[in-house]
Structures are given as structure tokens and as C-alpha cells.
Amino acid sequence: MSEIISRGNVENGDKLFKARCAQCHTTANGAPNKQGPNLYGLFGRKSGTVAGYAYSDANKNADVPMDINIFKYLTKLGIMWGEQTLFDYLENPKKYIPKTKMAFAGFKSEQDRADVVAYLEQSTK
Fold first, then answer.
1. Where are the alpha helices (DSSP H) in 1-125?
2. What pLDDT score does 35 carry?
3. pLDDT of residue 61
4. How far is the C-alpha of 102 from the C-alpha of 89, rounded, in Å?
5. Is the Cα dihedral 61, 66, 72, 73 positive or negative?
């Protein structure tokens, strides 16, 4: 885990999530999908796999971005959500997964991203 992610503040992440994410996502076990999928069980899950949510083909077939993928000769690795992948994704979702349906522009602040990751790590278990 990177140093910045380890300094994530759960309380601030909760506020940020409620202000910028909760209109499209839920985090509780059994909560419905909204405009975006329910995020319960997010960590350790492959992108595009929440049952009952109509993902874009881009998300269902997402690969690790080539500038991040150290195994450039492999294709269709898929994105496994973890602290670092989520931190990177939340900076600019449309750059990380081109053609995703997610309209959110991202959190430019590293601290905001770390805070949201910390909140989601706690709230989606």
C-alpha cells in the first residue's frame, strides 16, 4: 500500500462519498444497484461483475491500463479492485477504463482519493 493511501481518513471519505458518490452507488450488503453498481464486496472483486447491473462492455472487458500493466504482453487481465487500483481509478475513471458509463470526472486530490478508498474499504465489507 502506498504511503498516501495508508493516510486515508475514513470520516472525510464518508463525507466525500455522500457528497459525490452516493447519488449513484450504495455500499451496504443487499442494497440495490442505482445508476452505478452496489459497491458491497468491492475489494478483491473483478470489475464488471456485480449481478444485476448492466455494465458497459468497456467495464466488463476492462484491462489493466497499459501504463500500469507490468505484464504488457498479456491481454484481458481484468481489473481486480484493491486499494491501489481503486485509488488510481478514482483519479480519472474515463481514462482508467475508456468508454465506461461512469460520468464522474474523478478526485484530483490524492488525499481525497485516499480518504474515499479508506471509507470504502471499511463500508463495503
1. 3-6, 10-20, 57-60, 83-89, 93-96, 110-123
2. 96
3. 79
4. 11
5. positive
Whole-number pLDDT of residue 6: 92
Q: Where are the beta strands (DSSP E) in 32-117?
A: none
Quickly state the pLDDT bin for 69 (edges 50, 70, 90).
Answer: very low
Amino acid identity of residue 81, one-letter, is W
**Per-residue pLDDT tens for 3-47?**
888 999 999 999 999 999 999 999 999 999 999 999 999 999 999
Are residues 18 and 119 in contact, defined by beta-carbon separation less than 8 angstroms?
Answer: no
Please name the residues in contact with 74: beta carbons below 8 A apart, sequence gap of 6 or more.
none
CB atoms within 10 A of CB 115: 24
Q: What angle do CA 14, 89, 15 make, to 5 degrees?
A: 10
